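step 3/5: co-fold with cytidine-5'-monophosphate
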Amino acid sequence: MNATAYAKLNLTLDILRRREDGYHDLQMVMQTISLTDTLTITPAQGEGKITSNLSFLPTDGTNLAQKAAAAFRRATGLGGEVDISIHKHIPVCAGMAGGSADAAAVLRAMNQLTAAGLSPLALAQIGQSVGSDVPYCVLGGTALAEGRGERLTPLPALPPCHIVVCKPSFPVSTPQLFSRVDVRKILRRPDTQGMLEALEQGDLSGIARRMYNVFEDVLEPWKRAEVHAIQNALLDAGALGAIMTGSGPTVFGLFEALPQAQQAARRLGEQYQDVFLAQPVSIPQGKP
Ligand code: C5P
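step 4/5: write C-alpha cells
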C-alpha cells in the first residue's frame, strides 16, 4: 500500500513553560503543505525492514516510521511486521516534521491494511508515544497545537497562497535548542490570538504579519544571521511574511502571487540546494 506523508510548517511557535517531565508546553499554529514523502508499506516475510532513498536514514528500529508500526501493533493487537520503503523529499532535521509525517502515514496505512477502522483521533492518540508532532501529522490541515503538541484544535484553512521553503545547510538539534530557551527571558512572542482571528477572517496579509517563532531568538548569532538573510531575501521578493519553522533551520515565506514566489525560489535556488515551492493542503482525514 502506498501512503503520502505531508510536511508541516509553523505559522507560529511559542514556548509557554518548561514542564516537570522535561518537555515544554507549547502553543503553535501548524499548517500542512504539499511537500511530501512517498511510502510503500507491505506485509513482511519475517522481521520488518525499512529502506529509503537516503542512505543515512536510521534503519535500526529508531526510525519514527518503524516506531509507529510497532505502536500501532501494541495498541490494537492487529497487523504483523511490515516492510516500509520511504522515498524522501522532505528535508531531514529541518523543522518540517518529516519523520513524524512518515510515522503518521504509517499509522494511516496500517489502519487501512488491517481494516482496524480507527478514527483519526484514535490514530493521533497512538501517535503520541512516537513523537510530539505525530498527532498533528495524523490530523493535518490548519490547527492549533498545545501542550506537548498533542492537544489539537482544528482552525479555518489558510487561504490559498504560495509558499517558498528554503533550508540552510547548517544542522539544528531540537533538544539542544529547547535547552537554550529560558522561558522567563523570551522578549518577543507571537500574537497567537491575533493569528486565530486573522485565520477566522481569511486575511492572508494579517496571517503573514503575525507569523513568529520564538526559536529564532535562541539560535547562535551566525545561524540567526543566515536565517535573517533568507527571510530578507523572501521579503524583498514580495513575501507577505517569512519566518523559521519549528526548531529550524528551514525558513519559509508566504506569497499571494505565483510569479513572485517562483522568482524567489529561483533566486534562493542559486545559493541553496533545498528550495521548494509548495501550497497549503488539508489532508483528507483517514486516507493513507
Ligand atoms: O517528542 P519528540 O521526541 O519529538 O521531542 C524531541 C525533543 O524535543 C524532546 O526530547 C525534548 O527535548 C524536546 N521537546 C520539548 N517539548 C515539546 C516537544 C519536544 O522540550 N513539547
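step 5/5: annotate
The chain has nine helices and eleven strands.
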